[in-house]
Amino acid sequence: MDEKLVHRLEFAVSRLEALSFGGGASLGDGEAAAALDPSIIAFDDLRSQFVGRVRSAAEKIGGQVLDVTKIIEEAFEAQRELLIKIKETQKPSMSGLAQFLKPLNDVIVKATKMTEGRRSDFFNHLKAAVDSLTALAWITYTGKDCGMSMPIAHVEESWQMAEFYNNKVLVEFRNKDPNHVEWAKALKELHLPGLRDYVKSHYPLGPVWSATGKVAVSAPPKAPAPSRPMPPPPPPASLFSSESPQPSSSRPKKGMAAVFDEINSGKPVTVGLRKVTDDMKTKNRADRTSVISAGEKEGRVSSPSFSKAGPPKLELQMGRKWVVENQIGRKNLVIDDCDAKQSVYIFGCKDTVLQIQGKVNNITVDKCTKMGVVFTDVVAACEVVNCNGVEVQCQGSAPTISVDNTTGCQLYLSKDSLETSITTAKSSEINVLVPGAGPDSDWGEHALPQQFAHVYKNCQFVTTPVSHSGG
């Protein structure tokens, strides 16, 4: 008998058994009725057809590949249970949503731990599987103001991150073992077209909560975290957490600065996506002064417009140049397989954070908006051109950092990069943050002058920066 048909029959029998007990311990009356909903039946078909194919290929390989595939099955099973509960539960608050989705988050965190520590021979398999599970976060979409892409777009964007490692599996085993190739192809089809088409057919605008169902239990309030040295590590990361990191200084850190703090905490950036609350949005940020002098207003550089010119890219070209283009709303992009002979070119990205782990030759950030870049070491220079509202953090050393035709740039320097040469031209709102003298000291913020006065003395012009006071 066809293997796909067997899986579908097994799911049908499971549903009938649940109904036969009518109100037993496994399914309540509401849950049993929801289990017969067309969207739940379609999700069972998705699991039997696509997840079943990934499992069949993994069983031929065994080892860690089979282990991570079993976690994929657990994640899809957890999402199925949540979809049933959503149909009989009222829409919770943001904190209640995080608690409601905790079972799925726990499974994804368990998968993430498999990629930590020493790299195994199947590291690319593990990363492809773990990164693909972020696609299941489509269930957290609550509206256009929730800070994430719509469900269909989120599934596609999540797979783009996983496809980087999935392609490595295809290349490595293309002429070595067809079972690995079959597994990689099945994993892709599970998400594209499998999960994407399912979401498109049943939940294009996100999950539909019950208007008259029971109320979801909210998460208990947490005790305030003790103050820590800057930059502060956030609370334990959660894929569906809606809480913003707590500041340790008098000045609150919001937006991408909070994302930098999470990266500095040492936690793996692939733990998952974080919900963006209203106080983290740029339009609500309190760290921008509203008092602008007339001279400053006249000298302000116009913000370059943003336009999405093409499909998103994150790839290594010709073995020498990493290209990151047209990424939107991606807060956990990572380049971890680089060397000192390679360069990184970032173009046309918006509301995105990229972490570059390792030494590279050169970094260029071009025509980006609300972009965050965290890098370790650069051999030549880090260049920011034609940007608006970017934040760049150097965790190691960089001989030169140049900022050209840019409005709003935050530079975070490490102790090893305090001797960096910073060059600015046609730019405004340039702030440099440097670490304090002691381990518990707050970071110091210095605004670089954007206007200069030129006076002709002794047969030559003497140029001095112009400072503005609030008076």
UniProtKB/TrEMBL annotation:
Residues 217-255 are annotated as: Disordered. Residues 238-250 have a biased composition (Low complexity). Residues 221-237 have a biased composition (Pro residues). InterPro entries: Adenylate_cyclase-assoc_CAP, Adenylate_cyclase-assoc_CAP_C, C-CAP_CF_C-like, CAP/MinC_C, CAP_C_sf, CAP_CS_N, CAP_N, CAP_N_sf. Residues 311-448 form the C-CAP/cofactor C-like domain. GO terms for molecular function: actin binding; adenylate cyclase binding. SUPFAM superfamilies: C-terminal domain of adenylylcyclase associated protein, N-terminal domain of adenylylcyclase associated protein, CAP. Signal peptide: none annotated. It comes from the Eukaryota. One of its GO terms (biological process) is cAMP-mediated signaling. Gene3D superfamilies: 2.160.20.70, Adenylate cyclase-associated CAP, N-terminal domain. GO terms for cellular component: cytoplasm. Belongs to the CAP family. This is C-CAP/cofactor C-like domain-containing protein.
